[in-house]
Amino acid sequence: MRRIETKQLKPNMVVARSVSHGNTNVLAQAGMVLTVEAIKRLTELGIAAVYIREQYVPETIEPEHVIPDILRLETVALARANLSEAENYLKLDLNRVADTVNSIIDELLASDDIVVQLTGIRAFDDCLFTHSVNVCVLSIVIGISLNYNKSRLIELGVGALLHDIGKTRISPAILNKPDDLTRRECEQVKRHTTYGFEMLRNCAELSLLSAHIAFQHHERWDGQGYPRGLRGELIHEYARIVAVADVYAALLADRPYRPAYTVNQALNILERMTGVYLDPRPVSALVSNIAVYPVGSLVEINTGCIGMVMEVNKAAPTRPVIRIMVNNSGRQLKRTRLIDLSKSTTVMIVRALNDEDVDKLNLRQYVSVT
Ligand SMILES: [Fe+2]
Q1: Of 14, 29, 60, which residue is a domain's last?
Q2: Which of 196, 201, 328, 358 could form a disulfide with 304 if both were Cys (CB 3.0 to 4.6 A apart)?
Q3: What is the tens place of the pLDDT at every residue in 307-332?
Q4: How far is the CA of 170 from the centre of ligand 1 (A)?
């Protein structure tokens, strides 16, 4: 399976993971053979990339999803319904929000090994609803890692899902503006925190702490954030967790002005922000659950060969199972072979390949490097 930008899709490619457009209507089902028409539709709807089946990779290595597709789609639909209702000042269906967050928590608690694969949280589109669901899932992963009990996980998850609800009161013309915002527009966008808090604080079914997530998720660890410039532990821990999830999810999403960062790039950026923008504790809780070399990414090993990551070892995240595809003279192998790095003491990963390397090695047709 490889991730292909929509503009590079070709007819007859087979979809590996279903593509949705922010609601339960699936645009392209897994297994579907793409046609010119289907590609045109995906392009028109602004889908950034699609996962395509790839002959070199057996289906068994398909990256695990953090939560099942159907639950993700339901949650996105619910977020859409609630955020749209919020827009119309109708009542929020907070009981359903809590139920859905509860299902996500159960899914995550049921897996003894939560390793967040890049593909598990990567957004196919960068709309508010998909982003909110990703932030919710990542926040719960952090909460579990910090040994939160169920009721705290629900407060955290519900607040994370609704953290940007105040954006529904900001003009879409400003939110979707492709150019730089003016100072006045910037100030307006910043108000989404206060708007969100106002919208949520009086909901009887909602914990006031969840409402504080909307209020405080743009505060910074060093006190330079907004709306109140709170510093360090004066910011509620839930909001500090959601701030980390919000940044990480945004880095891994395609944006109109840049493609998604790779996991390595995102982790480097996260590291630079730690202790300045972000509380170090939730950052390390998240990082300990991220697959540094996600399934499907290309890596160079110390023998000079290049392989694709097939399986991640939670106990040894830097020593995954890889399939060697290119030998040390840069030649693509017809017969590939598997190496389990956790069982090898001499072979190790030297680096993850970036986009430039892929072009240089002419591997573009096989892999979209993550
Ligand atoms: Fe926000």
Answers
A1: 60
A2: 328
A3: 988 887 767 777 889 999 888 888 88
A4: 12
